[in-house]
Structures are given as structure tokens and as C-alpha cells.
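If your schedule permits, I should be very grateful for your opinion on a structural question. I have a record of one protein: its chain in single-letter code and its fold written as C-alpha cells. Would you kindly read the sequence against the C-alpha cells and tell me how you understand this chain to fold? Thank you for your consideration; the sequence and its C-alpha cells are set out here.


***
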Amino acid sequence: MIVSTPGIVMHATKYGDTSLIVKIFTQQQGNQSFIIKNAFRKNNRFAVSYFTPLAMMDISYDDHSKSSLKYLKDIAPHRSSNPLYYDPAKSSILLFYNEILYKMLMDSGEDEVLFDFLQEEIGKVHNATENLAELPLRFLLRLSMVMGYFPEDNYSPENAYFSLQECRFQHFFVEDAGFLTATESRYLHQLLSQHAPVTASRGLRVALLKQLVSYFQMHNEQIHKIDSLEILSAVLH
């Protein structure tokens, strides 16, 4: 059976001297792995440059094979997903998104809601002209909603400390026990309750970003260390 579906590149790794194994999150069948033979030859119609992190494309492949590795029949890369070589901020954001998603969706099956969400979020990065530093924070919050552990916004002067474990604001604070500080908690509340950009210092944004990564690690056992976090924190101002 020939399957034609949009897809998002999750990971690509060299296989042997000439081939490439690519994992693509597809709209119709979830994660699928493909082998691209002779990928590094100049005349290969499936150029290595197509398979950059979170590149979007329309693909077709034969799903008849019993092997876990399939062969692509055709690729139509989306023009809007060309690599952002000349924009280090956007490139860093997409690398961060990719690392989170690749680790979180290692064995993901079909999920059209998640797929459509990711297409929209990747498009926001490509089209953004300002407020780049806030994008990763809002992305993680929207992603948590899709994944089913969106923070409850019960913030008040009495409930001023967010608990990563309980997913809600509490009236007490326990240091080193998965609680955000009062300042971090208030900033999180502002992001949850306001659509407009929120003014915050670089230090506060970075601190909350790290806390939100911890939040995902706490609620998804497949996510461990996120290496791109430090790079992203250094690039965004």
C-alpha cells in the first residue's frame, strides 16, 4: 500500500558510509523510519539537506514492507521549512523544540491533533519577527496542554507558588522540592493568563524555561537531559 502523508523530520543519522536513516513523524501513521541509500551522492534526488530537524514535507512510501525501515518513493519539501542557517536565534529555538519532541515522541503512533499542532508551532518560529525569547516558553505551555498536563492557573495572592509535581499553584513554598519561586510563579501566571507579550528580564525568562523543562521531565519519563537548553539560553536575549 502506498501511503502519501505530510511529515516532520525528527532525527537523521548516518548509516554506514553512504546511507542515512531518517525518523519522520507522519500525520497518518505517527513515527516512521526510512533508509536513504547513497544519500551523500551529489545526484541523489533525496538530498541530505532535506532532512534537517523539524523540516516539513509531503512524502510517499510503500507501507507493504514488514521491515521497520521503509523506503521513500517521493518527497516534496515545504518551502517554508528551509533551514534557518542565517538566523541563529530561530535555529536554536527549532533545535530545542526538536530535542524535546524527539525524546518525547520516540514511539509515538498516529496523532493528527499533535501533528497539526507541531506544524502550526514550527510555522510560528519561521514567521516570527519579534518576541522570539518568549516563543519557547509559550510553546512548552501549549505542548503541555496537548500532552495532558497543562498547568492549572489558580494563582492568587494566597496561592503564589507553583508546584511542578501538582501542576497548580500552592499557598506554601518548599525549597528544592519542585516549587517555583514567587517571582517565577507570577511570571508563569502572566504567561498563562495573557496573550500579549509579557515583559520580563532575560534572567527570569531563562529561569522559567529551565523550570518548564524540569516540568516536562517530571511528567514524561522519556525526557532526560536537554542538551540544547544551555545553547538556547545563551542565544536568546
Summary: The two ends are 49 Å apart (CA to CA). The helical segments are 88-104, 112-127, 135-147, 182-193, 202-219, 228-235. The mean pLDDT is 91. The longest helix spans residues 202-219.
